[in-house]
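fyi for ur records
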Amino acid sequence: MSEANQTPKSLKAQITRTSLVLAAAALLREQGPKAVTYRKVAQWAGAASSSVGYYFESTNQLLYEAGRYNIQLWAERAENAAATAESMDQADCRKYLINLLISASLPDDSVNPAAHYMQLLAASESEDVTEAYRNGRVQLDQAVGRILKHAGVKLPAHVVGIVVDGAAVAAISEGREVREIAAELLESLVSAYEG
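which gave:
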């Protein structure tokens, strides 16, 4: 990969490259990996199609960057929940544990849960996106682990993600409230690890 493709030197070039990544990330979230083409990304970014090829050696590289951006958004959400947990004393952290775990694990109310999970499933269409998501999941799990540790709950962080994702898919498929079902299952899980 050439240096020009990695770090543009001028501010204008950095802005252009960033706008292309943001457009690709939005396309990835809304329409899946197959929608991320040079032409469509350029159109969404308001840039020339040739600029996409200039900044990215391939669609695969662009997909990976878009996936990294998306998972970073989710990791930041989890990090914010962990920071909130760590600002509490242990008793309060334990009291609000379920809400903190849900905040770390699910998108906020502005995101349609079904669309969120559909785009995660669509990620399987691109090895580059799945790699970015797999790598980013480590940061998500670390943030969840910080919440659990501060609450004094010895539960593996990755299990929280599995339970929340399973609850979300079940709730969506049954027309139920995602956060409500996730909270019920997390309460049971935490109780099992405490008792």
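The two ends are 53 Å apart (CA to CA). thats all i got for now
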